[in-house]
Design goal:
single chain; 409 residues; alpha/beta; Carbamate kinase; 8-stranded mixed sheet; 34% helix; globular; binds aspartic acid; binds magnesium ion
Length: 409
């Protein structure tokens, strides 16, 4: 008998009908002879609504109380799903993150899972039950305080739970059919991928592909839990995210991200200690710096540009201005109208000319490249925000992913 962890996102449990539909799918999996653990998100836009309510009653809601509030969302859907499953004559039991033994750090609102005890989950399975666990939450074992894992955290709950239980697979049911070669809302010819490696999925997720949270992919990779991303609305197969893919792709997909802004510090003295003077305070304020580009020195000074999430732009600008003054830089510029386009594919490690071809395609479309960064399996360019659709579409047309490498195809 296989053990399957199934995760259903907010859209999949948005109302009573959909919850009954989820119950049917869970029951089918169970009747096919599998042990099933289900992880649920809060119904529909519940989490957003709870956040709005908090903002209405308080100007600065305490993070502890936010966690008490938001964890209630997943509690509602887990109990309703248990009832809907029980209606099929099967035994089901819901557990909060804390009851399921999901232990976390103490960071309210952005806690990290440190350990999954899972005793009650295993006991429930041993008794022949379907066990439903509330996603996105846990407990700090020292303070006994309830925590949440950050927005979209139910994916991480599911994959971490699958790892801890040595499940055979983790199925993430969502409102899209799987992982696509590009955002299908932007590129009509985008195709659903049959499979993608953990390494590629991590790059896609952190380059803007919203299907899976990067942190959950990281868990999958670390503990080698294959993840099946599939639609909750039909039975067809989705995309498998796993260690090794059958074929190695030069380009698996094109991702884009318009959620970052660029900060440039002009005319910084080109000498030791300047970069650290800037990036240390950014780090200690928790600003998530993504790309960094430093220009060549010109008459002893240089420009440093970096990108940060738009929500952190004000914080980043304030820090950059303070540092600019103290190191004698010429000034600070910010630019919100940028977007990042990325090509991802594990096969590009052993293929030459991918970057050149990317730059050719962008140039043929009159798209200026403002920053470039690479990893072994990714090339990203920052372009003007209003050219992002053209950049993604032309790169997708030009590279036609998933383009397999010659060795394997
Ligand atoms: N309900 C939480 C959110 O909306 C967690 C999740 O859906 O994964 O962020
Ligand atoms: Mg969600």
């Amino acid at each position: 008998m296989a053990l399957v962890v199934q995760k259903f996102g907010g859209t999949s449990v948005a109302d009573a009908d959909r919850i009954r539909n989820v119950a049917r799918r869970v029951v089918e999996t169970r009747r096919a002879g599998n042990d099933v653990v289900v992880v649920v998100s809060a119904m529909g836009k519940t989490t957003d609504e709870l956040i709005r309510l908090a903002d209405q009653v308080s100007s600065t809601p305490y993070l502890r109380e936010m966690d008490m509030l938001l964890t209630a969302g997943e509690r509602i859907s887990m109990a309703l799903l248990a009832m809907a499953i029980q209606d099929h004559g099967l035994d089901a039991m819901s557990l909060t993150g804390s009851q399921a033994g999901i232990l976390t750090t103490n960071a309210h609102g952005s806690a990290k899972i440190t350990e999954i005890r899972g005793d009650r989950v295993r006991a429930g399975l041993d008794e022949g039950r379907i066990v439903i666990v509330a996603g996105f939450q846990g407990v700090d074992p020292d303070s006994k305080e309830i925590t949440t894992l950050g927005r979209g955290g139910s994916d991480a709950t599911a994959v971490a739970l699958a790892a801890a239980l040595s499940a055979d697979a983790c199925e993430i049911f969502t409102d899209v059919d799987g992982v696509y070669t590009a955002d299908p809302r932007m590129v009509a010819s985008a195709r659903k991928l049959e499979e993608v490696s953990f390494e590629e999925m991590l790059e896609l997720a952190s380059s803007g592909a919203g299907v899976l949270m990067a942190r959950s992919v990281e868990f999958g990779r670390r503990y080698n839990v294959p993840i099946h991303v599939r639609s909750s609305f039909h039975d067809g197969p989705g995309t498998w995210v796993k260690e090794k893919t059958m074929e190695e792709a030069v380009i698996r997909g094109v991702a884009h991200d318009a959620s970052e802004a660029k900060v440039t510090v002009h005319g910084v003295p080109d000498k030791p200690g300047v970069a650290v003077a800037l990036f240390e305070p950014l780090a200690s304020e928790g600003v998530l710096v993504d790309m960094i580009v430093q220009n060549v020195s010109n008459a002893g000074t240089t420009d440093i540009s970096f990108t940060v999430p738009v929500e952190q732009l004000d914080a980043a600008r304030t820090i950059a201005q303070t540092v600019a003054e103290s190191v004698g830089a010429a000034g600070v510029d910010v630019d919100e109208n940028i977007a990042k386009v990325s090509l991802v594919g594990a096969g590009m490690k052993s293929e030459t000319g991918v970057a050149a071809r990317m730059f050719r395609i962008l140039s043929d479309h009159g798209i200026n490249i403002e920053m470039i960064s690479t990893s072994p399996v990714r090339i990203s360019c920052v372009v003007r925000g209003d050219q992002v659709t053209e950049a993604v579409t032309s790169l997708h047309d030009g590279f036609d992913p998933p383009r397999m490498s010659a060795v394997n195809s």
